[in-house]
Amino acid sequence: MADPQFRPRALLDRFNIEVISTTDPATSDLGHHAKLRADGLGERVLPTFRPDRLAYLDRPTWRADVAELAKVSGIDTTTYDGFLDALRSRRAAFVEAGARATDHGHLLADTTPMEVSAARELYSRILGGAEASETEVAAFAAHMLYQMAAMSCEDGLVMQIHPGVLRDHNSAIWKTYGSDKGYDIPVQTEFTRALRPMLDRFGTDPRFRVILFTVDETSYSRELAPIAATYPSVRLGAPWWFLDSPEGMRRFREFAVETAGFYNTSGFVDDTRAYASIPARHDLFRRVDAGYLARLVLEHRLSMDEAVETAVDLTYNLPKESYPRP
Question: What is the value of pTM for the model shown?
Fold first, then answer.
C-alpha cells in the first residue's frame, strides 16, 4: 500500500481507466471534484448526481438535508417551488463539473406524478414538522422520480434508476450502526405500470435517456426487455450487486437480449465500491459476453465478424454512447 504505483491516481493508468464516476449527494459542494479538475483529472473523474436523501420524506435527516440544499445552492427551499429550483441549480453545477448522469436508488420504480397543489401542501406540511405516512412517503418519492425525468430533458443528464432493494433488513444492525450498513435484501419489483407515467410523457422524447437496473432478474424477459425494445429513451443497465456473478451475467444475456437486442443495453457499466477489483470485474463480464457470443456463432445466429464487432461495442462503445455529454 505504500508503493506509489498503488496510489489511486496511479491505478487509473495501471487499470487503463478512461472515465470513472463518483456518486455524490445533491447537497455536495463538489469541492473534491474541483481539486481533481485543477489537477488535470476533470475529464476522467466525474461526479454523479444522487438526490435520494431529498426524495424520501421519512429520512431522519430530510429537513436538515433540505436546509443544506438551500445553503449550497443559495436558493430558499422553504417552499416546494424553491426546492425544485434548488435541485435544478445543483444539477447545473454537476453538469458544469462534468457529470453525465443522475442516480436513483428508490425502493419502488413508481413514477406517478402528484398534482402540483398536493405536492406543495405535502412538502410544506412535512417541512413544518409533521410526520409523513407511508403512503405519502411513497407518493412523494414517485413524484420526485417523475420530476427528475423532466429535469433530465432540460439539462441532458442521463437518468439511472435501480430500485428493488429493501435496505436495513435487520433492525438490530440498523439500530446499532445506522442506515445502509448491510442486510440489504432484493424484493420483487414491478416496472411496467410503475414506469408508465414517466415513459408515457418522456419515453419518446429525444432529449431523454434512462438506464434501468434491477436486482429482480425475474423482470428481465417479462418487463424490462420489452420496455427497452419499445421506448427509444430506455437502455438496460448491466447486472449489478447480487447479479454481477458469472451465472447472473449469463442469465441476463439469455433473458434480455432476445427481446431487447444488444444495442438497447448499456454494455458493462461497473458499480463497484472496491476500486482494486475493477479490472477483474470487467475481465469476468467480457469473458461471459465472449462465451455467449461464441454460442451464437456456433449456432449460426451471428457471423464471426458480427460477434467480434458486438464484443467491442459491449465492452467499450455502448458504455460511452449510453452516457453522452449533456
Answer: 0.96
Grid cell of 52 as nine digits: 435520494
pLDDT one-digit tens code per residue, 183-237: 889 999 999 999 999 999 999 999 999 999 999 999 999 999 999 999 999 999 9
CA angle 50–178–180, rounded 5-degree value = 40
The CA-based diameter of the chain, rounded to the nearest angstrom, is 65
How far apart are the C-alpha atoms of 131 and 150, rounded to whole Å?
Answer: 28
According to DSSP, residue 131 is labeled P
CA-CA distance, 156 to 130, in Å (whole number)? 35
**Bridge partners of residue 178, in order along the sequence:** none
**CA 210/CA 202 separation, integer angstroms:** 10
Axis-axis angle for helices 134-155, 116-127 (nearest 10): 120
CA torsion through residues 118, 123, 124, 126, sign: positive
> Residue 33 to residues 65, 101, 259: CA-CA distances in angstroms?
21, 15, 40
